[in-house]
Amino acid sequence: MAIAQHRGHKHSIWLRRLIAAGAVVFGGFVVLTAVVLAVFYWPLSERAMVSRALDLGRLAALPPSASGVHADGTSNLFSMTYLLRFDAPADEIAAFVAQSPGLRGVAPEQFTAGHMMLQRPAGGGVPADGHRRFRLDPRYPWFDPTVRLRGRRYEIPQDANARWGEVIIDDERNTVFVQTHRS
């Protein structure tokens, strides 16, 4: 009988160790999940989103007189998209473009009355009218890069870290629209 109790005691220790190891593994999983959620899904402040948008596009800091600043975006483990809009004087916009490494050597697409940046029609098709089209996202009504008279679009080439995007400037309103991605 003493032998049977001894074996039961041995199994009891083994069972306690197994439960303790399982608790450690589960606790580690909970901590890892919390860290991933905090890093990738925690809502960022608008200031942090401005920084992310500029960083992803390898763009200069906002001009000193930038106003009407709006930023938003989405990110997950695999990709990021950030939108940024601001108004600034023409000379500060020119300096922003000149000081942005992501735009160096990029020739802009010019917009005029004959070649505009317009919203896609509600039906979803893209008319063959020579204008560049964009889709207005209802989540970001402030991001409407329509250019009807004078403006330009810079395509930010993808780098080795899969970061790319575009900068659209409405030279009539002195408004800059930035859309950057990582995928």
What labels would you give this structure?
183 residues, alpha+beta, single chain, 8 strands, six-stranded antiparallel β-sheet, 26% strand, 2 domains, elongated
Structural account:
The protein is α+β, with helices and mostly antiparallel strands. It folds into 2 domains: 1-42; 46-182, no CATH class. The protein contains 3 helices and 8 strands. The protein has a 6-stranded antiparallel β-sheet with strand order 1-2-8-7-6-3, with helices on one face. Strands 4-5 form a two-stranded parallel ribbon. Strand 1 and strand 2 (80-87) form a beta hairpin. The longest helix has 39 residues, at 2-40. The mean pLDDT is 84.
Q: Outline the low-pLDDT stretches.
A: none
Q: How many strands?
A: 8
Elements, N to C (H/E): HHEEHEEEEEE
Mean pLDDT score: 84
| Shape label | elongated
Number of helices: 3
Classify the secondary structure makeup into a structural class: alpha+beta
Report Rg.
Answer: 26 Å
Strand content: 25-35%
Largest sheet: 6 strands, antiparallel
